[in-house]
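sorry for the late reply, my laptop died twice this morning and i had to redo everyting from scratch. anyway the thing you sent over, i finally got around to it. pasting the sequence first so we're on the same page, its 114 residues, then the predicted structure underneath. double check i copied it right bc i was rushing
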Amino acid sequence: MYRLLKISAAAIAVAAFAQSAAAQPASASSVVVKQVVVTYADLDLKNEAGTAALLDRIEHAADRACGGNPQFDANYQIAREFLTREYEQCRASAVSGAVAGISASLTQVAYNAR
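ok and here's the structure:
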């Protein structure tokens, strides 16, 4: 059986950071949505090891979907708190949404324990 899970992340980015002064005027904000596919057909979600492996995959996918570590953003020095907060909120939302979409009860229990 081929099982996969799409991790969706909607990150709100202030357009002023992404546009130069010479660019056309931007709206106040824009929404960027990225999906990362997580496969888990090879995992047994009826045991803790399989559940832990799936949660690791989900967290890694959420990291990628939300743009990765905000310290590597070109605007990090200008908007450190904003970028960090947006990344953490995006990642938390992506992980919880993905876990909610899985029917394996052990996955829910393991996620709640983290």
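The helical segments are 15-18, 48-65, 80-100, 105-113.
thats about all i looked at so far, will dig more tmrw
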